[in-house]
Amino acid sequence: MLALTLFSVAACAQTAPLSITLIDPKTNAKQKCSASEGAAKDVAALSGAVEMCARQLEALGFVRIND
Question: What is the structure's pLDDT at 15?
Fold first, then answer.
């Protein structure tokens, strides 16, 4: 099973999701791409990393689900 982990940093104000859950419809395996709050203030970079993680999983057949 593919396991992707992003480093844990974030800011208080969020403009884009810092957590995206995906599921593989063939196996029902779930994966989560996320970044958590910490000392960094660059939410745009964090949400971009989360989005990139989600897109990589989507390329493998995963689809986004609502938490």
Answer: 55
